[in-house]
Amino acid sequence: MLTPPRAVVRREGGLYALERALQRRGFRHVAGADEAGRGACAGPLVAAAAILPASRRGEIDGLTDSKLLTPAAREEIYAEVVARALAYAVVVVPAEEVDGRGLHVCNVAAMRRALATLSIRPEYVLTDGFGVDGLGVPGLAVWKGDRVAACVAAASVLAKVTRDRIMVGLDADFPDYGFADHKGYITPEHSAALDRHGPCAEHRFSYVNVAAVSGRAGRPPRYRRPGAGRSHQPMERPGPVGGTVGVALGEQPRPPVSVGEDVAMEGGER
């Protein structure tokens, strides 16, 4: 049996070139997945997935890596993605889950959950940086995928805007840290606030800088978060701020295919 010739994707083809090449090969629904918040030491990790229309009429002007957009532009692109996407899903992993399971495990699991809860089953999956197995469809991990593939860029905008909105909401609950400004990432102002006030319930105690100021630096990462009855125990999380969000709480290890029963997992469909 002859194998089909290789598809050549040229850089000058733009952000939609990779998806269009896959669609020409018969993969009509190409999903992209990305995350926001890996490098933050406070707040949740957020993953998103999106399937964009195959036609050129569904292309979104100005779509690119969310980190290259201004906050105002991100909000505009976010609205366009929600309006035009064939399907989208967002998963929020709280800080205590990141501490309990580890960042990379949570990152891959969250992208897998987002992809698995899309209302349209993808036929091919593009992910930013990390491969995601257990989906039952072919996929490709793309270096800097949010600057190479439109569906990954759309997912990056969904994840970033959702997380930024959450951090702005948390700023009202924890006004000493400036979450609305730095969104939980490590900045001189954030580090100074940590030194002055110590960590709050939304910090990731498995991160070295947080563990150091909490007095728990000598403990293994998975055991650094204070337990029940401590002054920094997790508090009730505010509800989703716009968009379509699922909160993954207390998930135990399970086979990758058994993700449909996660708490409050929803997707957007048009």
Highlighted features:
270 residues; alpha/beta; Nucleotidyltransferase, domain 5; 7-stranded mixed β-sheet; 7 strands; elongated; disordered C terminus
Chain-averaged pLDDT: 81
- What Rg is obtained from the alpha carbons, in whole angstroms? 19 Å
Number of strands: 7
Q: Any idea what the CATH architecture of the largest domain is?
A: 2-Layer Sandwich
CATH class of the largest domain: Alpha Beta
How many DSSP H or I helices?
8
Question: What is the N-to-C succession of helices and strands?
Answer: HEEHEHHEEHHHHEE
Helix content: 25-40%
Domain unit count:
2
Alpha-beta classification: alpha/beta
CATH topology of the largest domain: Nucleotidyltransferase, domain 5
Q: Any chance you could write out the topology, listing elements then pairs?
A:
Elements: H1 17-24, E1 30-36, E2 45-51, H2 71-84, E3 87-93, H3 95-101, H4 103-116, E4 124-128, E5 139-142, H5 150-173, H6 179-182, H7 188-197, H8 208-214, E6 246-247, E7 267-269
Parallel strand pairs: 1-4, 3-6, 4-5
Antiparallel strand pairs: 1-2, 2-3, 3-7
Helix pairs in contact: 2-5, 3-4
